[in-house]
Design brief:
The protein has helices spanning 2-5, 39-47, 54-64, 69-85, and strands at 9-11, 15-20, 23-28, 33-36, 89-91. By secondary structure, the protein is of the alpha+beta class. It has one domain (2-86): Outer Surface Protein A, domain 3, CATH 3.90.930.60. The strands form two sheets. The chain has a three-stranded antiparallel sheet, covered by helices on one side. It has a two-stranded antiparallel ribbon with strand order 1-5. Helix 2 packs antiparallel against helix 3 (54-64) and helix 3 (54-64) packs across helix 4 (69-85).
């Protein structure tokens, strides 16, 4: 599990996105689907830049929102798994 937390994620080049009023709106051009997130999902999405590890993103969530590390980690990994399944992000 710790090796997962040290991974750095990248957005695919098959997405167009904007953050509006704290919510990410993501257009997956491969499947022509639109995805929206809440504020925490937007923070995750905005920090998927190929530079930050998943652990760093989780720590940022804990620092910016009133959430325990364990819950932030669990929810972040579920969210990232969905992003990967929809071919919106990948890890190197």
């Amino acid at each position: 599990m710790n090796s997962i937390l040290s991974k750095k994620l990248h957005r695919t080049n098959r997405v167009v996105w904007r953050i509006i009023d704290g919510e990410a709106i993501i257009l997956g051009t491969e499947k022509q689907a639109v995805y929206t997130t809440n504020r925490i999902g937007s923070l995750i999405w905005d920090n998927i830049d190929g530079k930050k590890t998943i652990r760093e993103i989780i720590n940022k969530i804990v620092n910016e929102f009133d959430v325990e590390y364990r819950k932030a980690k669990e929810d972040t990994l579920i969210f990232i798994d969905e992003l990967i399944k929809h071919n919106l992000v990948f890890s190197k």
